[in-house]
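It would be a great kindness if you could assist me with a short task in structural biology. The matter concerns a single protein, recorded as an amino acid sequence and a row of backbone structure tokens. Could you please explain, in whatever detail you think fit, how the structure tokens follow from the sequence? Thank you for your consideration; the sequence and its tokens are set out here:
___
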Amino acid sequence: MFLSAQQHMQRFVTQIVSMMKQEGLYYPQGGPIIISQVENEYQMVEPAFGSGGPRYVRWAAEMAVGLQTGVPWMMCKQNDAPDPIINTCNGLICGETFVGPNSPSKPALWTENWTTRYPIYGNDTKLRSTEDIAFAVALFIARKKGSFVSYYMYHGGTNFGRFASSYVTTSYYDGAPLDEYGLIWRPTWGHLRELHAAVNLSSEPLLFGTYSNFSLGQEQEAHIFETELKCVAFLVNFDKHQSPTVVFRNIPFQLAPKSISILSECRTVVFETAKVNAQYGSRTAKVVESLNDIHTWKAFKEPIPEDISKAVYTGNQLFEHLSMTKDETDYLWYIVSYEYRPSDDGQLVLLNAESRAHVLHAFVNTEYVGCVHGSHDGPGNIILNTNISLKEGQNTISLLSVMVGSPDSGAHMERRSFGIRKVSIQQGQQPLHLLNNELWGYQVGLYGEGKRIYTQEESSSVEWTEINSLTYHPLTWYKTTFAAPVGNDAVALNLTSMGKGEVWVNGESIGRYWVSFKAPSGQPSQSLYHIPQHFLKPTDNLLVLVEEIGGNPLEITVNTVSITTVCGSVNELSSPALHTQGKDPEVRLRCQRGKHISAIEFASYGNPAGDCTTFSTGSCHAALSESVVKQACIGKRGCSIPVSPARFGGDPCPGIQKSLLVVANCR
């Protein structure tokens, strides 16, 4: 029976809701689900459907509400969400861009607060600063009376296998508060924890208080939430360069550049978005095994298809990529024969191929002749122009069309087409020979893929050979084995020496790699590729790669990833950490689980210069700084040191504002 897209959607949503109800997961059932979402950012494509767009939005809303979950429904980035569906904001600065709820009965919700920039091959990593995230959250709560903020992502992850969308890296939102490996990304995690504590401290006036706001200056403003007994104020400074002093309720407050100060009871600063007192951390990838023994590696050259009669599919046209592969593989071979009659003047022969896939490799008589690729923000069409050598008579042109993920959004995705669109041969000044309507043969996927030679069970189904310096050519499979690192640290492969392809460990794909696609900085967008611990055995772990371009597997390394350095820097005038409920500011250090503080790299109570990356003692320095910190911290997983002169044998320099900077090593 043929079902419409809406019928499929309703069946899917109904099934998911039924599963949740059966498990008692909705809030009225005593479960944790307090809100549900239907559709996602449909407003971005809605105009493409004309009058059908708003009609679909209304239908989706009615369908969802009719399922009677007992909790509210929301639509992300959908300003025209019909009642009772709540329209929400996705973005970086919803405190500035959100138009607000479209009904007074709806709360202001921020459903995707993007913690880093979208990770794309060919781009440098764009981390979002801790201060910027905190400023955006506080502003949304203050300006929009926001009652809900969800971080996208709060926990980074890995796009294993082929799950990443077009041009998206295998590593996904690694700079989130919890990174790709599950490690705490400091100071973001700690600074946001303090922000959350400050908001929670004033939950009563935020939820039940009367809201007011007024200007404190040209780029400064105050937002107040007040009940008869409780009050909280947000003092906002939009100026990115100046630190103005403002007067609020007869009290002067100095505001850091681009910052928000949260005032408990509208008088005491309990949190400043631009002042990071949380612990910093440095993540390190340590080489534990270099896979540089040539005798442990084997290679298998992927066969280049050249016999059209053996092709599974043939046709006198260029078929669309995804309609052939069904997205079960990145690869589709296009094979055609060309009869060449050389001219007397020895003119060059030019192969031209146009494609809407992401990568195109070209082979003539099984010899590699060139490659071209696109980019996430570039034109959809890629063009390969390369001079080729042909033999007299019949020649085989084998073109490998490659997708690097499927598109992740957009209108009429079913109408998008990928793959090769045009192929021609130009011989000198002779007329262009268009090959589109010649007889083409097609092979879906690579031979090694079909044979599953990346698994232990099927690895022996092909003949592997020893590798040598001549082996590093395009479209080659490599395999070796390695031992799992001892301990519980995260594990990753450094593939900087490779080009582009996919990698498997014990038959499990840990994702695509594309280190040859350099970012503007000249560095790969991603070098380390995460291997989950549960993929590994103690020894003899099978590592298999398919390399499209030609890399050097002898330079691959197995690495452990951990937080090796922690640091804290706190001023004596800083507000004490709210989550500790302490009375005095303090430096708090903590290693990741399973590690302890092994050494104090630097410690200074006084006016130390620099920060957690570059540091030195200043003109004021307590002589007991290092010994006090060592006694408090060495051998422990975590420690806290009050920023107080009494702790360091007295005030080393009266009249000077002091701070404590500590850098420690974890192992």
Observations:
- The CA atoms of residues 252 and 439 lie 81 Å apart.
